[in-house]
Design a protein that fits this description.
The protein has 4 domains: about 160 residues, Hypothetical protein af1432 (Orthogonal Bundle); about 60 residues, no CATH class; about 180 residues, Hypothetical protein af1432 (Orthogonal Bundle); about 60 residues, Arc Repressor Mutant, subunit A. A two-stranded antiparallel sheet has the order 1-2. The protein is mainly α. It is built from 25 helices and 2 strands. Helix 15 crosses helix 19. The protein is about 60% helix and about 0% strand.
């Protein structure tokens, strides 16, 4: 029995959170800005044409907004397979025939301007690798969508529908979980809307019609495609203006809402979505939120300011998804061009947050978490006079959290070394002295988590923490000093208990429940980080 959306009629509209996530997935997928919002309008027009019932309309609305929310689930693996190509280059072909999909992959695999011999080698290596990881890739998409729908309070029925996100009408999907009318109606409508809307943007209206006609009865529900083809111009209509207000107005009544007390859970889910961009970032946003919120309390900030600090920390890195995942995974110094991309991620965060009336108040401190008092920070290089108290606390907390976490290019600092580093930054006039003192005070009180939810054993909790850190099953076994078969048994038992089927789902669960610290790698020396 569906438990329904939580907090219906609450003062916090979930539509604003979902639409903000849609903007972030546009960045993560390399889509045109507001592509997800445009597709959502197309989906709601299809619902009108199909005379869909109210619950189907509601599920279609959120399904379309969150359709690509799994884009960070294995972004690092994708980046290594397709190199410098944008995921968007492959998307036009993913609902096509098998030959179409193969042609799309072959076109996308070579890095830009690769010489013919290099391009050939990249294709020969990339195609088998892509085929090997595709099932895990699709399970990750489904698991992440399901987890986000749950944590946004959208109800179990919609969350369960995400299990079928990659299934095809003809049953030829990789996961083969359902086919035909066994696929939930909202998934069938959202799939057509997303596919047709994107083809319309990257190809043309006529080519979009041709492609959808050829995919009817194969990838897509023929009845939904028929409705689209009869009214394609109306379904795809758009005048080039922002679609934000239209999407807010299009949410089926009654508007799904959260009580203010439930908002932190939803914002934490959005932060975890961003941290999935790289295994080394697992739990970063939630860790900064805990640290900065407590530090704000130590500084005597009022309750609204403490809340702003805590919530801005959860969302400060949502713009990371707009940066090539290979940069976050790089184990060598960044090039000037790569640094320029890194410097943009606070700007992307600001753009995503500034569209929502609910989140716009968090945009300033979130966008300033890499600014320094002497103007040497990024992305704007603001001086001290223009940095608010919440922004100063965030900057100190983010620095401490970052330097005490391992990254691909260096190990973590011990807490004593991190303390010396932040003290030096404060003495040099880059970080706020009071903020640094508060953060270091709080950091000395924090301990590793003790809770083991869902009946997890101590060993299973360790395994989840290591998986969230990006270790393979073989590496988990080596780290714990057990056989690979034993480690795999722990992995499968943990998956079963927490109800996921992918590494991405396990990582999200570990972040949500504060289990990432159980997978901390050995502490060593490290240098400063982006």
């Amino acid at each position: 029995m569906d438990d329904g959306p939580s907090g219906e009629g609450g003062s916090v509209r979930v539509a604003e959170l979902a639409a903000s996530l849609s903007l972030a997935t546009d960045l993560g997928m390399g889509f045109p800005w507001e592509q997800g919002l445009q597709a959502t309008m197309a989906a709601m027009r299809l619902c009108d044409l199909l005379d869909a019932d109210l619950e189907t309309r509601r599920q279609t609305y959120y399904m379309t907004l969150l359709f690509y929310s799994g884009c960070t689930s294995d972004a690092a693996e994708d980046a290594h397979i397709i190199g410098g190509a944008k995921t968007a280059n492959i998307v036009p072909f993913i609902w096509g025939s098998l030959p179409d999909r193969l042609r799309g992959l072959l076109r996308a695999l070579p890095q830009p301007d690769a010489p013919p011999p290099v391009a050939l080698r990249q294709r020969l290596v990339g195609v088998p690798r892509a085929a090997l990881v595709l099932p895990e890739h699709q399970r990750g998409y489904c698991d992440v969508g399901q987890a986000l729908a749950t944590r946004l309070g959208l109800g179990s029925s919609l969350a369960q529908s995400f299990r079928f996100l990659t299934d095809r009408w003809d049953g030829a999907g990789v996961l083969r979980r359902a086919k035909g009318e066994a696929i939930p109606p909202a998934v069938r409508i959202a799939t057509v809307a997303r596919d047709a809307s994107f083809l319309h943007v990257v190809w043309s209206s006529e080519k979009a019609r041709e492609a959808m006609r050829s995919r009817a009865g194969k990838a897509h529900d023929p009845a939904v495609v028929a409705a689209f083809l009869r009214n394609a111009d109306d379904v795809l209509a758009g005048d080039g203006a922002s679609r934000w207000a239209d999407v807010m107005a299009a949410e089926p009544p009654p508007h799904t809402g959260l009580r203010p007390s439930q908002l932190d859970t939803a914002l934490a889910a959005m932060g975890d979505f961003a941290d999935l961009i790289s295994p080394s970032l697992s739990g970063h946003s939630s860790g900064v939120s805990m640290l900065s919120g407590r530090a704000a309390e130590v500084l005597g900030m009022d309750d609204p300011s403490v809340s702003t600090v805590r919530r801005a920390a959860l969302l400060q890195d949502i713009g990371r998804v707009g940066v090539d995942a290979r940069i976050w995974e790089k184990a060598a110094p960044l090039t000037p061009d790569e640094w320029e991309q890194v410097r943009l991620h606070p700007y992307y965060s600001e753009r995503v947050l500034s569209r929502s009336q609910l989140l716009v108040g968090l945009a300033e401190p979130a966008a300033c978490h890499h600014e320094h008092l002497d103007g040497s920070g990024y992305h704007r290089g603001l001086p001290a006079a223009m940095l608010s108290a919440p922004a100063r606390v965030l900057a100190a907390a983010d620095e401490f959290r970052s330097v005490t976490q391992p990254r691909p290019y260096r190990p973590a600092l011990s807490r004593s070394r991190a303390t010396r580093l932040l003290t030096e930054e404060a003495n040099a006039g880059r970080l706020d002295v009071d903020a640094v003192e508060a953060v270091l005070h709080v950091a000395g009180e924090l301990t590793s988590p003790l809770a083991r939810p869902r009946g997890l054993t101590h060993r299973e909790t360790q395994v989840l923490g290591l998986l969230a850190r990006g270790l393979t099953t073989r590496q988990v076994a080596r780290s714990l000093g057990v056989a690979v078969k034993t480690a795999d048994r722990h992995v499968q038992n943990a998956y079963r208990k927490i109800g996921v089927s992918s590494r991405a789902g396990a990582a999200l669960f570990a972040m949500e429940h504060g289990l990432v610290a159980w997978g901390e790698l050995p502490i060593g020396e490290r240098s400063t980080a982006p």
